[in-house]
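#struct-pred

JT: dropping the chains for the assembly here, can someone run the whole complex?
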Amino acid sequence: MKENRRERIVENVCIAVITLVTATVLVILSGASPLEACQMFFRGIFGNLNGFGEVFVKATPLILTGLGCSVAFRTGFFNIGAEGQFYMGALTSTWVVLNLTGVPGPLRIVLAILTGFVTGGLWALIAAMMKARFDISEIIVTIMLNYIGINLLGIAVRTFLMDPAGSIPQSAKLDASATLVRFLKPTRIHTGIFLALAAVVFIWFLMEKTTVGYEIRAVGFNQRGAACNGISVVKNIILSAALSGGLAGVAGAVEVLGVQRKLLEGISGGCGYTAILISLLAVNRPFGVLVTAILFAALSVGANSMQRQMGIPAAIVDFLIGMIVLLILGRELFWRRAARKEGK
Amino acid sequence: MLEQIFTMTFMTAFLAAAVRMAVPLAYAGMGELIAEKSGILNIGMEGVMLAGAFFSFAGAFFTGSILLGLACGIVGGVAVSMIHAVLSIRLVRDQSVSGISLNIFALGVTSFLYKLMSSGDSYKQIEPLSRLRIPALADIPLVGSALFEQDIMTYVLYFLVVGIAWFYAKTSMGLSFAAIGENPRAADAAGIPVHRYQYVTMVLNGVLGGIGGAYLVLVQVGNFTENMTSGRGYIALAAVILGRYMPGGILAASFLFGAANALQIRLQAVGVPLPPQALAMLPYVITLVALLTSIGKNQKPEALSRPYVRGAR
Amino acid sequence: MDRLNGYIYCVIDRFCGGFCLFTETTERKDGMPLLEMKQITKAFSGVYANENVDLSVEAGEIHALLGENGAGKTTLMNILFGIYQADRGEIYYQGKKVEFLSPRDAIDQGIGMVHQHFSLVRKMTVLDNIILGLESRASVLDRKSAAARIRELADKYGLSVNPESRVSELSVGEQQRVEILKVLYRNVNLLILDEPTGVLTPQETEKFFDILRKLKAEGHGIIIITHRLAEIMAISDRVTILRDGKAVSRLVTAGTTPEELSAHMIGRELKKDTSQREGFQPEEMLSLKDVSLSKKRRKKKSLSHVSLGVHKGEILGIAGVEGNGQKELAEVITGIRKNYKGTMTWRGENLAGISVKERFRKGISYISDDRHNDSLIMDMTVTDNIILRDFDCSPYSRWGVLDHKKAEERAGKALENFKIKTSGTSGIRTLVKLMSGGNQQKVILAREITDQAGLIVASQPTRGLDIGATEFVHQELLKQKSQGKSVVLISADLDELLSLSDRIAVMFAGKIVGILDRAEADVFKIGLLMGGVTGEEAAVAERKEAAEPEAARPENARASAEKQETVGPDGCRNQPAAAGGQSRKGGDVA
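RK: done, full complex below.
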């Protein structure tokens, strides 16, 4: 046991060192000084209120989609479709807000978010059913649904949700009464962050303290063992998929209602894919997702600052994060023995 | 407007575009077929193609030679595939996790490097590969121009498809490769070096996927944009399934998806009043429908994505 | 020298367009066996799978290798075939010393093996399966001449099969023929067959034996690993019996009997437990009538017309070599397998359509032989595993919310009552995968043996456990019996069965071939049944035994074996009957 922990620490140190070295190299390649870049990076996050607030603004959708992925991954259902579920949630919630004008603001918000949840869940269910009934890989299906979702939104903002007063592909502005309050001017932080935090607690409670979570975890750990003891594997996979999609749908709704206040293209910022990495790094644990999401958001803000001030491409963060994930996957290579598992 | 669509000119142009759209899918599909037939599922094909696209662009841009660009694209593709190979074969990692992570990583790397390359200047362009017209054959009405008035990579593809089909059907080595994906234990017992052959298939996977990505840049567009593959790698995965794991079938499936793509562009050019997104969705919707029609008839190799460890026999 | 002749023949033959067809060009040097394994020793993690085993096989001989599970038969053959290398000992093949580092080496030398589980690529044709891996370069396949050669071989040995058919379309008997053809195609002169008749119907078995006889006539040596005594008697020339990793006897089949074989295989006197034990009550709690279970793609049923009754306060033992339907029986009773024919009733209620969960609530508990996959969730804590069966009932949950306190209470009690030791200091929060096998088993017992349990299906419950844990499990089962519960005890450990069971049913090939009362059961009778010698024959054997009491005792059987053994280069090794020895726990080490 101690051996294992020692090995882990060495591996993590190696990964950290490799990452730092690569980051430095990349920064130099971008024609900037690493020390300055570092400064800009941290100044972007902590230097002013705006930047700091932006971290939480960016973190909100990441937390929600990350939670979604974590729930699905725990049963082995590879939900790669958080993007599409996000957009579907955004789409339908916008429709609700724009069309149910008779409903008072706060209630409209609730309805909108609920609609986002349901739509996202249904979008994920398509893939889950295809997997359960026909054994079709959910990876391909969810990715296809991503592109379909993105394009459905594109159609929506050009047709039935298009702002009649304008000529660009976006919806009309949402009524101020039906949007999430921004409470820390001049930042863009909105009440959606509380929803995200509540979701973290809720998912934690669900997974650790309820029978539903117990079943999901059991199925994720050992399908056969669960089945032999009377737990329905199919039911739980489908349930986790739907919940996962619902959370992503909520992320979409919240982003529209809180940040954009209208529907337009590209509002996900790729969070549906980032969520996958977040969940993997957080080992699918709700509080881990929370921390990792905030971390990713901070990285993103810092990188933007570096890009603005020094011309270092913000994609450096994606590069490094992707590399970290691969290093973690391949960490056994640090040791020179063949890491072959013994078959049973 | 319908009369405009059903004219020879439209159809000919449409078919030609369809073939052009299909080629990268077909290359990637062939690469994926080779890997899957020996048991490795490479969901990272999207990353392979993207790497192929970017590095071929960088190579062609800096050296001025399309051939060198292609070579760079191939190297990029192989690099991605080999990461997947090591993770999947040597470290026995979950192939889906490894694949998805690779895609995201490749996206980050290519976006970053491209931004570096193009910092300041916004638009970089290279001279794309020109078309090679095959006389006589290209004069066949309707399909002649589509099939025989293309670039050389397309012609290579035709031979490749035939070659791969012949390899699996008629050679001893092809039989061995295919056996690995079906029953690696049986292949091992027959003396076939399972892991070594799997690495070989992954190299080929990288080469062909890299060419697929390079085609987008070197032939179709002439430049690189972030995430320019837009899910083509995943569509290639679907093409393999739809094509029932046969080279000819994959070519046909790629053509179907390419046609959907081309239809969108052509219809727009004609002025059909549908928002472009409706048509842009088409390839993806067709993919889903195609997957649904493939159930039951799924010919996937039995040991696909199940790593082989010579355990207690 | 004959090797060279063989090669020249091959070259000429290939020149003339055909492949080398092995005929009787191997002249058997008189007195030199085809195969000799000397003093083969192999240990895994300090446990001996084979210990100083000698084996000798002649060309043109069918040699049976007999032994219980874990006796070392498969390990020995795996060493011969190059899958493992022996720690000590030598192998001589055709007079030459050889060492095989991989199956390829063995095949190249002329040794072929047909495994218990076929190595066939289902999607491919028979032809492709046979020629798979034969040529390593990218040469073009010459399917036509290969097909011709296969047909030749098939006709010669009576292995009728169509080279063009896909393996997935073939019956199991036909698939086996393909496996044999695979081996013959590569010019082997020694064939190893591992439990070849396990998947065959009696008719297919007969056909199979005809094939073996033809092979034998052509001068091939054949080693057949089996536990089926009747078949050994029918087809083999000599038998080598392994027990606990050692070769205990070598007999000439013609001069022995199934009883003798069985006695050697099990090799101990019964420890007659003469302690007074109460019987069981007359009320039948679990009743199976004519239950059958078919596997897809197999003609042979996993369970074939099984009829059983388990009474109140009874421990019904199920004996049999693993793989004869015991697991399926357990899974059918507990509800894991659902598509069975026939009727099953529990406490008078028909169990058709009743789910696993409901069966548990009605009192059917399960202790699976595959602890790690079936009974436990290894990555969860002791507490979570304790409530695995009823986490969704009160008091462990209400309105869907788990009551951890109650669950932990129960887990704590379980630790106490069952003396479960968790490694480290986390107690009930320990992950089950960190615990020892014995303690893991106790967790399962604590969960499954509740007050509500009425029937406990226990499969290999003491496998891999130390003596203390084993004793504990035994006491627990006896306690349940005394409380009027019913137990179905499936075990490969005959001593365990004999000491605990009220009755013992023996399974063979998916059928119940005999049910013995405690009083009349002994190792010897059970051994016969396990080997497939059915009830009537067992009775006949008993009468014979009564008539010749001297000959049938294991020690005396050994004496007569000595007389009838052929003179081999090193004489046979016989172990004295191990006094009071336990049979080896654990499944087949290989």
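JT: nice. The radius of gyration of chain B is 20 Å. DSSP finds 14 helices and two strands in chain B.
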